[in-house]
């Protein structure tokens, strides 16, 4: 597996691949890899392509310095995992190289700053937007893979694709189902910040929410567990609120529950389809 740390070098590398008529799959990550990330890599195996994973903990998408500082980092372990899973290249840029010198004035559609996580994390999606565009412009992938657990982020990726890349290249955004542990808890790097007691608590609470939906919002809160939001959304409406113009027909009448919770100081998100 080749490891590249320079944006200039990754651009040179991918231009060479394209000149050789190679397709490129990009799996963006912030490291601390788990089975959720591996499911994205597994999905990429369905596409004949050179597999590139990126690893960059994006400071622009954190709302507090403490949260950024506490984000789990396991770089050596991550490299071994990627090698074992046949990734061809790891792009691991330095922040001074990947962060743009001049930040553009970003105006995202209304939903990204007023709905779900956007309402509670000002500037978060602008931060994601900046780095995702940097990755796409540097690597020029044919396929990108994202998990549905970060559903609003997935909407942002689709919006970026719609606005900048839909008519320029044939980039495909592939969404992959949320991966859960045996208890039903959605896999997340932040789960590593929980102790066993907290993991058991949050698994039970989320199961209660899934089974009883929104009726449990008030009595669920206690000293160890609190709900930031639980919301039900029709997906066609949710997409349109985020500026997505081509609403897929298959979304008609589909609904999801979205939630953000705190277990101690650890914030977790989840979503699931309902009938």
| Number of separate strands | 9
The value of Rg in angstroms is 19 Å
Count of helix runs: 12
Total number of distinct structural domains: 2
| CATH class descriptor name of the largest domain | Alpha Beta
Percentage of β-strand residues: 15-25%
Strand-and-helix sequence, N→C? Answer: EHEHEHHEHHHHEHEHHEHEE
What fold name goes in the CATH topology slot of the largest domain?
Answer: Rossmann fold
Strand-pairing-aware structural class: alpha/beta
Helical content class: 40-55%
- The CATH homologous superfamily of the largest domain is called HUPs
Read across the widest sheet, the strand sequence of neighbours is 1-4-3-2-5-6
Largest sheet: 6 strands, parallel
What does the overall shape look like? Answer: globular
Low-confidence stretches: none
The overall pLDDT average reads 92
Structure description:
With 275 residues, the chain is α/β, with parallel strands linked by helices. It has two domains: 2-176, HUPs (Rossmann fold, 3-Layer(aba) Sandwich), CATH 3.40.50; 189-274, Pantoate--beta-alanine Ligase, Chain: A,domain 2. Helices cover 40% and strands 20% of the residues. The strands form two sheets. Strands 1-4-3-2-5-6 form a six-stranded parallel beta sheet, sandwiched between helices. Helix 2 (35-44) links the parallel strand 2 and strand 3 (50-55).
